Amino acid sequence: MIQHVTESMKLDKFAADLHLEIVYAGRGSVTLSSMSVERPGLALAGFFDYFDPNRVVVLGFAEHEYLRSFTEEIRRKKIADLLAQGEIPCIIVSRDLPVLQELAEEARIAKCPIFRSPKPTTDLMSDLYIHLNRVLAPSTTSHGVLMEVFGVGVLLTGKSGVGKSETAMELIKRGHRLIADDSVLIREITNELYGTAPDMIRYFMELRGIGIINVKSMYGSGSVLDEKKIDMEIQMERWQEGKEYDRVGDEGLTEEILGVKIPKIVIPVSPGRNLAIIIEVAARNFRLKSMGYDAAEELIARSIGR
C-alpha cells in the first residue's frame, strides 16, 4: 500500500496557495497529513468519537453562529475542548467572518495557526481538497529529463551519459519546454502522473563539458514549465548490435510508476541519429493514437486487404 506523506509548509506558502489571510501564526508552520477537511459542528457539541485532529479545521457560518449562541464561558470551554483533541494543523475561518476572541485566545494557548478566507465555506473546502490531494499525493523521484513536446509530457530516461540532457537541449532550441533535468519529482494525482523539478534545481540543466546552465535565463520563460502531466516515457539506450528493436510500433510497452502505467518507447542511440526529431515524431504519434489513429494498424489492414 502506498503511504501518503506528511508535509510541513510555511505559513506564507500555505496562505498564498489558498489566498488566505494569516490571522495568527501559531507554530509558524502547517503540518499536513490528511487529505480530508474537518467541519467541527459535532465536535463543538461535545461528540469527539470520530473527530480527527490531523485534519484542517474549517469554521463556517453555522459553526460561528452556533458558538455565538453561548455565553463567553461556555464558548471558551467548547473551543478549548476542540483544541485539546490534538495538534490540529490549523483553523480556517470562511466568509471573512470575525475571529471570536475566545478562539483567538485559546488558539494562542495551543499555538494553533488561524487563517481567514473571503470565500464561502463550500468553495473553500473544495479548494482545500484539491490542494491537499496535490500536496499529499504519493510521490517518487526518477532520474531523467521531463519535457513538454507538442503538448505531450515526455519523460526521457536512460543510463547516465546516454545523451538525455543534450537531446533535451536540442528540443528546447526547437521550441519545446523543459520541466525538469536530472531529477524528476513525480506525483500520482487521481490516477495520473505529474512531474516537476525539485525547487533547488528548477530551470537548471547540466551539460557535460559546459557545466550548469539556467534554461529560463538563457532561453526565456517560454522555454520552461513548472509542472506537466507525464504522458509517455522514452528510454534512450546505446545501440546494441543484434538486439531487435520495435520497427512497427505494435509492441505496446508500458512503464509502471506509482501504480500508474504509461506507454513506453525504447529508442536506440547511435552516432548520426537526430534524436530530437525522433522524439518529436514519437510525441506527434502519441497524440494521433490518443485520438484513435494508429498507423501500424492501418498498414496491417491495407496488407490484409490486398
Strand/helix succession = EHEEEHEHHEHEHEEHEEEEHEEEEHH
How far apart the termini lie comes to: 51 Å
Overall radius of gyration: 26 Å
Enumerate how many helices there are, as a single number. Answer: 10
Overall outline: elongated
Helix content: 25-40%
| Number of separate strands | 17
Unreliable spans are none
Main β-sheet description: 8 strands, mixed
Strand content: 25-35%
Q: What integer is the average pLDDT?
A: 90
Classify the secondary structure makeup into a structural class.
Answer: alpha/beta
Question: What strand order characterises the main sheet?
Answer: 14-11-10-8-9-15-17-16
Please tell me about this protein's structure.
The chain is α/β, with parallel strands linked by helices. 32% of the residues lie in helices and 30% in strands. It has ten helices and 17 strands. It has an eight-stranded mixed sheet with strand order 14-11-10-8-9-15-17-16. It has a five-stranded mixed sheet with strand order 2-7-6-5-4. A two-stranded antiparallel ribbon has the order 1-3. Strand 10 and strand 11 form a beta hairpin. Helix 4 runs parallel beside helix 5 and helix 7 packs across helix 9. The longest helix is centred in the last third of the chain and has 16 residues. The two termini are 51 Å apart.
